[in-house]
Amino acid sequence: MLSEEWLASLNFEMTGGANVTGLLGIGSSKVVLAATWHDGKEVAVRTSRNQIGFHIQEIPPDLTVKKEYDVDVVNEKLLKLVGDSRFDTYSYWYDLLYARLVKIISEHGLGGVIMSNQAPDSVDSIPFILSTMPMHRRLDEIAYWPVDPDDPLTQMPIVNGEEYGVITYVLDGIIPWAKKALDALDNNLGYGQHALPKKMLDNPLVIWGAAAMEGFFDDEELEQVGRFIKARFGELVGREDAHALISQVDMIANLCVQYHSRCPVDRMVKLCAKCGFFFQARDIKGTIVADGTALFR
């Protein structure tokens, strides 16, 4: 839940020169901040509400001219989000990933998602992401979309957020394409299950990795983050579920950049390397865009 009181108290200089002075409003997918230019002209700044900073009451680093956060404080706040079933909606890049996949499902079904990614790792990564709890929850929420019997417009909702919005229809109490996909989600021949998709949001590197991709933690601070994660969760490489943990971050990192090429996935890859997990992230064409293995060559 976003804090209107905290958002209203914001005062910082944005990249671009405007100075944020408070809050104008919160929508279903955006936060609108009040700001002024150096000449005193008042402006409104519209930005995604699905940014981790807004959800932990820290100014999103990508919005600011200078660093506004304390690493120790951010670490403690992120710790509280491990296992949060709605974390994907707090993360800018995870939210975009899931929203795009749901958009493809709405148009072409689950088969369309499989055909949308022909990267070699997609044999595992697509069944994996389709089996995660966020995908189940999103499709469930759409499939059983609430309607007001006295308001015909509620029978034709726009679902799936703003960037990948889907105009759809409620028929006999359900949205058919979402219900069909929901019923078929786990029929994936077992691929990707070695990564324990239902437990993805319990993985600390999935949480801190998302924050890193949103501008938290420079290279020096990643060392500090790595020590914090080790202190709270133990040596990840030595855990019984180490194979699942590295598989989860490997696949989510690759999927983020494969479906949104501008995703700064290198930040997540570097963080994972600090915790002993080394892997490469490749874009949809198979080009290496982030290489954790290069750090120990």
- Placed side by side, the strands forming the largest sheet appear as 1-2-3-4
Number of beta strands: 8
**Count of DSSP H/I helices:** 11
Rg (CA only): 20 Å
Average pLDDT confidence is 94
Look at the helices and sheets and give the structural class.
Answer: alpha+beta
The dominant shape is: globular
What is the number of domains? 2
Query: What is the end-to-end distance?
Result: 43 Å
Largest sheet: 4 strands, antiparallel
Unreliable segments of 5+ consecutive residues: none
What share of residues is helical? 40-55%
H and E order: HEEEEHHHHHEEHHHHHEE
**Proportion of β residues?**
5-15%
Characteristics:
297 residues; alpha+beta; four-stranded antiparallel β-sheet; two-stranded antiparallel ribbon; 42% helix; globular
Written overview of the protein:
This protein has 297 residues and is of the alpha+beta class. It folds into 2 domains: 1-68, no CATH class; 81-297, no CATH class. The protein has 11 helices and 8 strands. The strands form 3 sheets. Strands 1-2-3-4 form a 4-stranded antiparallel beta sheet. A two-stranded antiparallel sheet has the order 5-6. It has a two-stranded antiparallel sheet with strand order 7-8. It is globular. The relative contact order is 0.11. The mean pLDDT is 94.
